[in-house]
From TrEMBL:
<dbReference type="Pfam" id="PF07676">
    <property type="entry name" value="PD40"/>
</dbReference>
<keyword id="KW-0720">Serine protease</keyword>
<dbReference type="InterPro" id="IPR011659">
    <property type="entry name" value="WD40"/>
</dbReference>
<dbReference type="InterPro" id="IPR001375">
    <property type="entry name" value="Peptidase_S9_cat"/>
</dbReference>
<dbReference type="InterPro" id="IPR029058">
    <property type="entry name" value="AB_hydrolase_fold"/>
</dbReference>
<dbReference type="Pfam" id="PF00326">
    <property type="entry name" value="Peptidase_S9"/>
</dbReference>
<dbReference type="InterPro" id="IPR011042">
    <property type="entry name" value="6-blade_b-propeller_TolB-like"/>
</dbReference>
<protein>
    <submittedName>
        <fullName>S9 family peptidase</fullName>
    </submittedName>
</protein>
<keyword id="KW-0378">Hydrolase</keyword>
<keyword id="KW-0645">Protease</keyword>
<feature type="domain" description="Peptidase S9 prolyl oligopeptidase catalytic">
    <location>
        <begin position="441"/>
        <end position="645"/>
    </location>
</feature>
Length: 645
């Protein structure tokens, strides 16, 4: 896979299934237009796959319960905001329902197949191109100053929050286009993940505890009357809720974590259930899955009741599996959850129609294909990643190792073509409570195709190996996690086809932290380093990062001595190998000052150092940045390693 083969990276979104209609949005980077194109595709249950819409950016299909209509999001051009549209399920012209200044969120049909709930950010007058009360449109530099009173005033990839709260809307598709619908929630808190109750009169949303009265990591489920009225607390969680589903009998199923204070970090999200009370007092949920062994993944979809089981995605040693949880389970461990799909794969999304499941499943050779699961069998319906495979992908080998303290470590190795000996890249993921998985990873494929053996793994601190595995580095970053990574590298280097004298280390975010840490403490192991969107200085991260106000205390602690001791910047004087710092100018997760401080320290130190800055990008550059910048980044990575390895 070459950098420009990024155009062949086809990524499907959440599917929609009703009867014989199965739809999914497919997003692909477009280098010439420097944007992402999106189209809705239909996968016939007979195996025929066809383009279903012809917009520039179509996504998020949702089929009405009666099967007559499809709601979806469409942006007319790459610069436009997505707006809500509906189209007959049998085909025809799409009708726009919204014209919101900052666009609309994914549609959710009411049981009556007439109304649609969604969320959207609503700007204050005079901001983000929205006219002032006097009708004047201001340039960003002309806007009034923002008065900040909270820690949580901004978030990476979105920006400021208080002046454009995400609010709940309900539109009636039988009425004239609602170009200016009225929000049902106020501007005190962001709400998200709407889901209808079976009565069709109430929408559940996720919001910060106490309706956002104070900064918190805790979230609850609130009920909002669809015709307007005061929201009420429906479910008080044990910590957080990510995504909820509701079964026809009115029971609520949701993915959320239990927080044991003083820390909420690295807590396995589990499957919970609750039943709303008639007196509108908050329901108390019950946990169905074991906190230590089961890590539920809400990003793949809300839990769904099918018969006497609940389907939910679960992280398990680098796989994202669809598992069935007994509906009456009590803290069931992983081995008690029936596997449905995702062995040595990653279930990115799933939906249910009756007892049939449509899932998007990624594998080492695919960014995601539609799979129909019915009657105990699985059928792969699409082959969207074939053009990318035709360009050449390297196979993935499972890799295990033992750390110095006897702890088992899990990861993967990608070998380039030929006998070698090959130069080696140790690649470290971000998070840290995240994980590499079995799905296609474009970055390592580019590196392996360019002639590098790639070692990647999930050291202690990662997700999907038990909660204690994830919590092992709380207040201990750079200890056993570094040991695990070096153990994986050593295991790979036992292969005579890999050249132990030509090894580089690279990573982003937490992986960038680890790159700097390893370069300072184990620099003799590496020829050079590539540190991207890194945490380099915990003391300034506290105030400059969008999450620094709680993340640093959670993972490092509030003691300044500890913060400095765990900062790669404090050990920059020990770094002698060539060091490249890649950063985005609009990164608010790990702000640019993290890169600048490290660059100046290394420059003063006499270390061969370079800094590569990407304008107009945030923390997610390598995953969802502008396509040309993603290609330019690939080219810069390969040029750097060709120089030093």
């Amino acid at each position: 896979m070459r950098p420009t083969d990024l155009e062949h990276l086809a990524v499907p979104g959440m599917p929609a299934l009703h009867g014989d209609l199965l739809l999914a949005g497919l997003s692909t980077p477009h280098l010439e237009g420097n944007a992402y194109r999106g189209v809705l595709w239909r996968a016939g249950l007979d195996g025929e796959v066809s383009r279903w819409t012809h917009g520039e950016r179509d996504s998020a299909p949702a089929i009405s319960p009666d099967g007559r209509w499809v709601a979806f999001l469409r942006a007319e051009t790459a610069k436009d905001r997505p707006q809500l549209h509906v189209i007959p399920a049998g085909g025809g012209d799409a009708r726009r329902l919204t014209a919101l200044p900052l666009g609309a969120g994914a549609p959710v049909w009411a049981p009556d197949s007439r109304r649609i709930a969604f969320t959207a950010r609503v700007p204050e007058p005079g901001r983000y191109g929205f006219p002032t009360e006097g009708g004047e449109r201001l340039e960003p530099a002309e806007e009034a100053p923002r008065r900040i009173t909270r820690f949580d005033y901004r978030i990476d990839d979105i920006g400021f929050l208080g002046d454009r709260r995400e609010r709940l809307f309900v539109v009636d598709t039988t009425e004239d286009p609602a170009v200016d619908p009225v929000p049902l929630t106020d501007d005190r808190v962001d709400v998200g993940a709407p889901v209808w109750l079976p009565d069709g009169e109430t929408v559940l949303v996720v919001a910060l505890r106490d309706w956002g009265a104070a900064e918190s990591e805790e979230t609850d489920l609130y009920a909002v009357p669809a015709d307007g009225g005061e929201p009420w607390l429906a479910v008080r969680t044990a910590g957080s809720v990510d995504r909820a589903g509701v079964s026809p009998d009115g029971r609520i199923w949701f993915v959320g974590a239990e927080f044991t204070w003083p820390g909420a970090e690295a807590r396995n999200p589990g499957l919970w259930t609750a039943t709303l009370r008639d007196d509108r007092e908050p329901a108390v949920p019950r946990r169905l899955t074991d906190a230590e062994t089961v890590h539920c993944a809400a990003a793949a979809g809300a839990p769904v009741l099918v018969g006497d089981e609940v389907l939910v995605a679960v992280l398990n040693r680098g796989a994202v599996e669809l598992r069935a949880v007994p509906a009456e389970a009590e803290a069931a461990p992983l081995e008690k959850l029936r596997p449905v799909a995702g062995e040595r794969a990653a279930v990115r999304a799933f939906t249910v129609d009756g007892e049939r499941v449509a899932a998007v499943v990624a594998t080492p050779g695919s960014a995601g294909e539609l799979v129909l699961i019915a009657d105990g069998t699985q059928r792969v319906l699409t082959d969207w990643s074939k053009p990318l495979r035709d360009q050449g992908l390297r196979p993935v080998e499972e890799l295990t190792a033992t750390a110095p303290d006897g702890y088992g470590v899990h990861g993967w190795l990608l070998r380039p073509e030929g006998e070698g000996p090959h130069p080696v890249l140790l690649v470290v993921h971000g998070g840290p409570f995240a994980a590499y998985d079995w799905g296609l990873f474009d970055e390592v494929q580019v590196y392996a195709s360019a002639g590098y053996a790639v070692v990647m793994g999930n050291p202690r601190g990662s997700a999907g190996y038990g909660e204690s595995h994830g919590r092992a580095i709380v207040h201990a970053l750079g200890t056993v996690d570094a040991d695990d990574l070096l153990a994986l590298l050593d295991a790979a280097l036992e292969d005579p086809g890999l050249d132990a004298s030509r090894v580089g280390v690279m990573g982003g975010s937490y992986g960038g932290f680890m790159t700097g840490w390893l370069a300072a403490h184990h620099g003799e192991r590496f020829r050079a380093a590539w540190s991207e969107r890194a945490v380099n200085a915990w003391d300034s991260m506290v105030g400059s990062s969008d999450i620094g106000w709680n993340f640093v205390d959670a993972y490092i602690g509030d003691d300044l001595t500890a913060q400095l001791d765990r900062s790669p910047l404090s050990h920059a004087g020990r770094i002698r190998i060539p060091f490249l710092i890649a950063h985005s100018e609009q990164d608010w997760r790990c702000p640019i000052e993290q890169a600048q401080r490290m660059f100046v320290a290394l420059k003063h130190n006499g270390t061969p150092v370079e800094m590569l800055l990407f304008p107009g990008e945030g923390h997610e550059l390598s995953r969802s940045g502008r396509p040309r910048h993603r290609v330019q980044r690939f080219e810069a990575v390969l040029e750097w390693w060709s120089r030093h390895l």
